[in-house]
Amino acid sequence: MPKVTFIDLEGKSHQCDIANGLSVMEGAIAGGVPGILAICGGSCACSTCHAYVDDAWADKVGGPNEIEDATLDLANDRRTHSRLTCQITMQPEFEGLVIHVAKND
Amino acid sequence: MTRHVIIGAGQAGLQIVESLRKEGFSGEIALIGDEASAPYQRPPLSKKYLLGQITAERLLFRAPEHYGRLGVELRLSTRVTAIDPAAHTVTLAEGSQLEWDRLALATGARVRKLGVPGAEDPRVHVLRGVEDAEALRQGLEQAARVVVIGGGFIGLEVAAIARKLGLEVKVVEAQSRVLPRVVAPLVSTFFHELHTGHGVRILLDQQVAALVPSADALTVQTQDGTVIPADLVVVGIGVLPNTELAEAAGLACDAGIVVDEFARTSHPHIVSAGDCTRHRNLLFAAPHRLESVQNAVDQAKVAASTMLDAPVPYAQVPWFWSDQYDVKLQMVGISTGHDSLVVRGVPGPDGFSVFYRSGDRVIAVDSINKPAEHMAARKLIAAGGQCDPERLADTSTDLKTLLQ
Question: Which of A32, B5, B89, B276 could form a disulfide with B100 if both were Cys (CB 3.0 to 4.6 A apart)?
Fold first, then answer.
């Protein structure tokens, strides 16, 4: 399973194995990564799984889809590489992906 | 050591636990739930889970070991039979007692039962918990003809799934339109046509009189004599708040556990949050009860703040969503008491939004396949809802610019 490293707001890293086909959010939730809340359960309705894709990974992961883009407008502190992690589906090429957790509340 | 006890391991109960720890509470926490599963998400039960796209494991909010990491005693399949507010104890079904310093009631709601003959037939399903959803999912595998009683969100979401599975679906609604309690008539019409366009037959103004079992069908009979044979019946006619424990403990209840804007019940050391509460929200004049993820989460945070003696009042704009076929309905605010409507866009597949106004303020907005408009609407309502209706209706005006 590909490994993803989440860096939380306090700078702590959390490594999670996330099966291909699951969302990055699901992996974070299963791994108990602080700050990924996902209160809508991955419906792209709430913006509380907001995170920043690490600069080195931004091209490979790509940008938000249309609904996600609109939903991200509600998130705190949106930046260039902002994504909703419920909308990023794990695939083999994402081995080693690095995600920075945003301030979700 | 201080111990806080939370009754109810759903979305609100879990959020109280998470918020207590996030705010630095280091005492003991017991989270007690009567279901067998660790806390899980309910919204996908009537969507992806029912379609078989995700497993029960993927519904879990947290991995089981997370509770150990949080230092939370998670007691599943455990029913609380009594609360003693004076002694600060709860009694569990097996007879033992737990002491608490602060108690939180996140007991949720249960489905309203259809009180007609035949409603206990095993071919009758409801949808609230994961066990209900699993039984329904298996039932749908065996069924060809499905009758959904109730044209609310649960009924329509189940109807959409059953059509996706290729089944014959009829929806029986007691009132004169689908989603009668929650949306404007033109939104009801849109969803009515959406479903009929997908092959669902909708029967309006039909009161169910009986379900008549036979070997090869369960026949739904309505009061005007219509008979509809089914292999499986789904009843989605609303929920009732679980207030019995609170009532027996002498806490004030009024079709919900009564709480103030700090999620406090009538007992100073007992809070309550989520679907079970009739609550105050500073944004609204009157108390109300809501069944939603947003309310469960936001009110749970308020409840946790009160348990920690650092109360923050509840003042969040409510929002909701429903997924049916390829349509996402997103709602914000409470439309009760609106006196005019503004429609932005044309009801149809390209999406539209309906603004509910009271005087010159927008108090609620339904957006159909318009997530950007929903997001803008959330900001608009949080900012007080003052907006020129002509500009709202003008699709060439970007809603975001109205906020600046």
Answer: B5
A42: chain B residues, CB-CB within 8 Å: 44
The domains of chain B are located at 3-110+240-307, 113-235, 326-403
B23 touches chain A (CB under 8 A): no
Search chain A and give the residue with CA nearest B292: A40
CA distance A38 to A104: 9
**Nearest residue of chain A to residue B67 (CA atoms):** A32
DSSP codes joined into one string, B223-268:
TTS-EEEESEEEE---EEE--HHHHHTT--BSSSEEE-TT-B-SST
User: What CATH architecture is B326-403?
Assistant: 2-Layer Sandwich (3.30)
pTM of the model: 0.93
* Fold (CATH) for B113-235: FAD/NAD(P)-binding domain (3.50.50)
ipTM tops the 0.85 cut:
no
CA distance B231 to chain A (A): 31
Q: What is the pLDDT of residues A21-37, one digit of tens each?
A: 999 999 998 888 989 98
Angle at B113 between CA B134 and CA B292, to 5 degrees: 65
Contact B66 A32 (CB under 8 A): yes
The topology under which CATH files domain A3-101 is Ubiquitin-like (UB roll) (3.10.20)
pLDDT digits (tens, 9 = 90+) for B319-333: 999 999 999 999 999
